[in-house]
Amino acid sequence: MRIYYEIEVIKRELDARILFGIISANKGFSVVIGKKNKLLEKIKYLIPGVFIFKSSRERPEKLAQYLRKYGFYIFSSDEEGLFNTSSDEVLHRVPEKTIKIVDKFLAWGDEQANPLRNNYSNIDDKIILCGNSRFDLLKKPIKNVYLEAAKNINKKYGKFDLYISAFHKYNALTQPGTNYLTDIKSWGDNLIEHEKRKKLFSNMFELQKKNMMSTINFFNLNSKKMNKMIIRPHPAENLSTWTNNLNEDLKENVIYDHINTNSWIMAADRVFGYYCTSTIEASLLGKMAVNLIFNKGEVFKTKIFDLFCNEINNPINYEDLYLKIKNLEIKSSKDFVNDKAIFFFKNYNSYNAELVCDEITKFIKDKKKQNVKDRFDNKIYFAFFLILQKIRNFFISTKSITAKLYNQKNPGITLSEVKNKLNDFSKELGISNIECREIYPGVFEIKKMKNGDPN
Predict the structure, then answer these.
(1) Whose CA is closest to 260, among 297, 298, 292, 232?
(2) Residue 285, helix vs strand vs coil
(3) What is the pTM of this model?
(4) Distance between CA 399 and CA 392 in Å, rounded?
């Protein structure tokens, strides 16, 4: 059986998809990954299988009929499903119409699944509790893959603390004269939901605005001592907001690249943020993870941050900040309890891919097998599709905000980077019979070699 898993943000998702592919391939599956637009535009040429959407709001419903026409089963997930501000927000991000149309929904854990169970009828058999492969990257031995890049970062920057920015609502990369709030035309499916969510996100927007500017102000006031604080903006943020507002001696500390954030976390002494999922990942990697808060807002204070992250409120100066840190402990090394963690992400004690593949095996047990091949899968058509892609890229304006944001999130995936990471992960896992090939430009298959022969 073939599994398809789309990618939007390289830095956040690519490594997780590759690891998912290796473990799934080792269990006998073939996994195809790719940038979501490239994967969908070639889907009609590919062997039918299970297609996993990275979000569950609208795309599964809109594309269900198209995918089913070509024989696909439809699974959906929510890449941001770990951060749940309320039950209403879970229901909005995973509406009932999506649950009805998909074959299965991949939930991070019971925290995300319970609102769905409590509000939608007859859906228990549709929910798979499986966490997310992003958190598998933080486990031994997989995390060893990030050590070399972490060492190289330390060679270049020495010892430093890391601030991982997640102000992507206030500091969203949008058209000039607009912002995150004015860009969104509809907040819900009805007037009540629209008003409720607009109020919620207006609150988030204002809190992020206050905290981002207060954070920048704090850094500037302490800039002579903050030269060892490296700032990594969110992939959807406007980078110039940081560089335009920071003191000259801090501007070079704003670093945006496509090195996996795990390497930056492992290289850092401590990790700071403002209710950012990466601070939870930092805690799981054994780092001191701190939410640096200047303006409190209960909307961001969800249970999972209490479990994994410390808080420091309104430090007076640099010395005060580090004096307060001395009284804190790394939460994951003391308070991390399996039962508590599993409530939020089910793959704490197992790999996400194992949980998903086991459920797919049960799901397809009585389904009719389709013995077909990928269409146009040869060197001539590969060259044709590649030329077509280059022509298309030539006519797309790289200056538009949409193109800028898209390239900032995902500049493209190459076969060499997939193969290199696949080899690194496979080595750590002790798996030696997995290969990767590029079926079409930007569309990659991960599978087990036949009789040890990659061909």
Answers:
(1) 232
(2) coil
(3) 0.91
(4) 15
